[in-house]
Amino acid sequence: MENIVGDRVLIALQPINISRLSTHVVPIVPGTLIVVAGAGPKDSNGAGKSSFIAAITALLGDEQWRFASGAKAVSELLFNAELAAGGGRQWASADHGYIIGVFDEPEPRDPLTVWLRVNQEAPHLEIRWTSGVHLAMAPSEAERVTRADEMWAALPRSAGRRDVVARDLTRFLYGDRVRCVSFLSTSVRSKVATNLLSQPLNEISPERIFEAVAALTGLDAELDQEREARRDEHAKRLRAAQARQRLQEFEAESRSLLAAFDRRDRARELLAEATRCWRGRLARMLVDAAERDATLAQELERHRAGQRTAEETIAQVRAEIATLRDDTLDRRLAEARRELAQAQAQVGKLEAERAVVENTADELRGRIPALEEARRFADGREVSAAEAELAQARQRLNAALKAAGVAEREVDAAAAALDAAESGPAAAQLRALAEAGITAGGLRDALDVAEQAWNASGAAADGPHGRSWEHAVIVDAAALDDAARALADLPGSVLVSSAGVTVVGSFEKAPTGRDARIKAAEQRLHRARDAQEEAARAVRAAEDGVAEAARRLEGARAGVELAEVERRLAERRGRLAELTAAIEESAPRIAAAEREVSALDFRARTREAEIERLEARRARLEDDRRRARAEEARVVAERRELDLDGLTEAWGGTEESAREWLAALPDAERPLTADEWWRAAERCLDQALRATFRDEEEEEMPEELRFLIRDRSEPGAGRTAREQATFPAVCAALGSYLRAQEDYERHQRRQIEAQLATRQRDLAAADTGAEEAARSTAVHRAALTTAIKARLTRVAEEFERLDLAYGGYGATLDFPVPPPPTDPEQRWAWKVVPKWRRGEGQGYVPYNRRANTALMDEKAVKLVCAAAIASSSGGHLCLVLDELGRNLGKEHRREAVTLFRRIGETYGITVVGALQDDMEPYAVDACGQYIKLRRSSDAMPYNEPPVIVGQDRHASRVRALSAYVTRPAAPPSLDAARPSDAPPSPDAVLPMDRS
């Protein structure tokens, strides 16, 4: 199951959770130049170009990722929320993601989908593949991520029960053939050897150029076989040289021991010199300390005198301040301010009272017009006369109201009489008969009798039954019985019918007189209403008289009130004049008080200023005294630090003896300082220690000396003081050790001389068979040399052909055969030196001569392409470049980009290049496919859908590839021509947004 991809080429890529790249499918047109541009929040940076091309190199097995070591660097391509969204908390970093690629023949018929699962934890890469097109298609980004996990779980494992991991990626997918050469210049780049496109060609050594060409041409395996042969040769040489090595080791050990003995003799001399230098340091320190102590004593007396002078001056200043702070002036100022406040308070009261009086006068003046207007209604009457007139008017009103009441009662009585005349006295009987359905009429209503003819009881004077005739009714004789039954509940009722006048009787004569009674009642009602109207007119006239009398009384009272208001107004005016005069009299007294307060206040401020000046002087004097005390303390402390007694004890004598010892020194050593003596002593002791104990002899150091050296060499503050404090003890311990070793070293010298003579006799038997080991690999190395030269010759021929075909004057390679390395683990380091002509008919110039960067990049591209073409493994090659044209000048950019495309399309090499903004105008017109990654804001963690543009004849191919990978059930032909009626388009814009 090796070389699963075979001759298929990459036609589509889908990243899932890879950096900030969107999860949309990106079609890839093989065999041309593909440029990847970006549109980030500010410029092209931040759009994920480098992550995109890095994902392609990982999918194609670029060895920069170090697949043999697990390809841990690939996990750095996973989405990182902190880097992608500015540290936002609403996004989470991805713990795994996918790089999905679709591979197919140039004529699509047998697609293969390869899934690379990238994990944050080991294994960092897992590989699965399946036939057909299997991409994570869904409407949204989140759904595509979820769909990818589901599809990965459904894919078959590539190696039986387990997945293929990073170390087997190239073998399983590509059969160890080189499918990708890349130059990644960003943080996603692995830490491996740089290929020919990773830097300017003239900065790469010839050895590294050969390594890159060997990787492209498949010479690595043969070089490894040659190294294995050398390992066998080395083993045989090693066995032959063991005897000589044993002798050399003994000689080396002997020389080491003898050198150690010589070093210890030198150490004894250095230790004696270190002790003498230490003695010189003690003498110099004692003499210098005595001189410094005398100087400090004089300085101390000067500081103490300064303190006494400052204290005396401070006492004088304090006395002056106490005199100025007498409170007499303060008391006078307070009294003047109190008097001023009292005068101002009195004036304030007068002003307030004047304001009240003015307000009262204004109020009284405002009432006068209304009172004068009301007084006119009195017509000159006094209040008593107006009150009498009002009383008489009210009496007339009461009489009119009584007459109106009598007239109203008469109207009510007349109206009642009219109602009675119209209804009749037999109304109850008539209602009862009507309810029974019997027609009847009142007897009294039917009779027309004069009013005076009725008696007092209400019956007619000549009526047969007196009062009973009021309630008599007339009915028909046929209805007499029914009427009697209907009036059974009304005792005393009289029925009159044609049968006669009885209780149920009847009479022959028709009754009359109702109209006369109604007319008389109506006349009575008219007379009563006329009397009522006359009484009402009298009431209204009386009411008008009462109102007029009330107005006259109000006017009389307004006149009295007006007199009172004018009197009070005159009083307020007099009081206002008095208050104004009092205020004017107080003004001079207040002005004088203000002048007094101002003068005293000025004197007080002047006094405070003088006190502040004296306080400042006192503070300065106290600072001087404080500094003098500090200097005194410093001098005392410095004299204490000199420690004359301790120095005298360390020297072991008096100051005079130290001076004599220094005076006896040579002229060169006499002016040395204590530090110089110390550095010399420390240097001698250090040399003595190094001469006594080397690194391999550390175990022989006595424990006491080891402890002292460890203590004095502890890092940190005070290290020099520790070294000086332990110096005598270290010298004593080292001297004791050297004295103890002196007899042992003398005995060891005699033993080494005897053993060396014995071992030299055994040297002759160890020099046989060394040359036979070299003959076993001669034939293999000769054959490999021929193969390498043939392969490099083919690369040189292709290099020459490409250079001549694309604007050059010819190029070749110089590859001298190097000697094989002696180290069996070292690779046979060949050197390849590219050369080219700079003009027609000129000779070849080595690549490391000075040349412009554009030319170097052009030759590097041609050399890589030549090595790929000449490779014995064949197959499609993908060349991936970051910062495309970065080192090119503006005048060479378009030509270089065009060269990438022409070489790619001629030899079937897919060139993928990421570029910055300044390179985009030169590359967009010269490329075969244009991919733009977009992200409009730093707040967006993921990219927007990419824009893919196919240039020239690749426009329809981009559309066809997109349809092919998104609708694999019906793959369209990638060579389908445009419709004949459509004009040719220079590009095809395909935003791959399937949501």
Structure characterization notes:
This protein has about 1000 residues and is α+β, with helices and mostly antiparallel strands. It has 24 helices and 21 strands. The protein has a 7-stranded mixed sheet, with helices on both faces. A hairpin with a 2-residue loop joins strand 11 and strand 12. Helix 7 (about 240-325) crosses helix 15 and helix 16 packs parallel to helix 18. The longest helix is centred in the middle third of the chain and has 129 residues, at about 515-640. Residues about 455-465, about 505-510 and about 970-995 have low confidence and may be disordered.
In angstroms, what separates the terminal alpha carbons? 38 Å
Oligomer: single chain
Shape: flat
Report the major sheet: 7 strands, mixed
Give the mean pLDDT.
78
Q: Over the alpha carbons, how many angstroms does the gyration radius reach?
A: 68 Å
The helix count comes to 24
Major sheet: arrangement of strands = 8-17-18-3-19-20-21
The SS-based structural class is alpha+beta
Low-pLDDT segments: 454-467, 504-512, 968-995
Task: Please report the total strand number as a whole number.
Answer: 21
- Share of helical residues: 55-70%
Query: How much strand content do the residues show?
Result: 5-15%
